[in-house]
Amino acid sequence: SHFGRMCPIESPEGPNIGLIGSLATFGRINPFGFIETPYRKVVNGHVTDEVEYMTADRDAEHVIAQANQELDDNGNFVKKQALARVGEEEAVDVPVSSVDYMDVSPRQMVSVGASLIPFLEHDEGHRALMGTNMQRQAVPLIESERPLVGTGAEWRAAVDSGDVILA
């Protein structure tokens, strides 16, 4: 699975497929060259703050709940069922007692470029692909101004770009 490792939106189609890939927002390369993605550990229906990075082969061994599951103030699941990935299956309702891990963020599956597109989940795939390609070609404004609509990821993208002076 490429979930949380390679961006499904920013990856090219046509003759460049497989030649260029964009790392997902929270993905990282381990010392062996494999891409890992983070998950929060779940113990007896309680989502802990412990974060564990896993490769794709370990994903298939666990039940992983989606990041948008409702939790109470103590980090416990509110509902008795959770939407989760089980092995190769996607989006299956499972009892919370069987959940091993939880995604750290809904943005975990997309690249930084895709996470900057407002209302991405409501865009058709082709439009999202065009949006990420346009962001890659963007040039800065002479006089910067705030965006009219944002996603909340703009600040981190600006800081990590290395083009912003911080005091």
Automatic annotation (TrEMBL):
The keyword Transferase applies. Residues 1-29 form the RNA polymerase Rpb2 domain. One of its GO terms (molecular function) is DNA binding. Its EC number is 2.7.7.6. One of its GO terms (biological process) is DNA-templated transcription. The keyword Nucleotidyltransferase applies. GO terms for cellular component: DNA-directed RNA polymerase complex. Residues 39-105 form the DNA-directed RNA polymerase beta subunit external domain. Keywords: DNA-directed RNA polymerase, Nucleotidyltransferase, Transcription, Transferase. It comes from the Bacteria. InterPro entries: DNA-dir_RNA_pol_bsu_ext_1_sf (IPR042107), DNA-dir_RNA_pol_bsu_external_1 (IPR019462), DNA-dir_RNA_pol_su2 (IPR015712), RNA_pol_Rpb2_3 (IPR007645). It catalyses: RNA(n) + a ribonucleoside 5'-triphosphate = RNA(n+1) + diphosphate. It holds the Pfam family RNA_pol_Rpb2_45. It is an enzyme of class 2 (transferase). PANTHER family: DNA-DIRECTED RNA POLYMERASE I SUBUNIT 2 (PTHR20856). Belongs to the RNA polymerase beta chain family. This is DNA-directed RNA polymerase. It comes from Bifidobacterium catenulatum. The lineage of its organism: Bacteria, Bacillati, Actinomycetota, Actinomycetes, Bifidobacteriales.
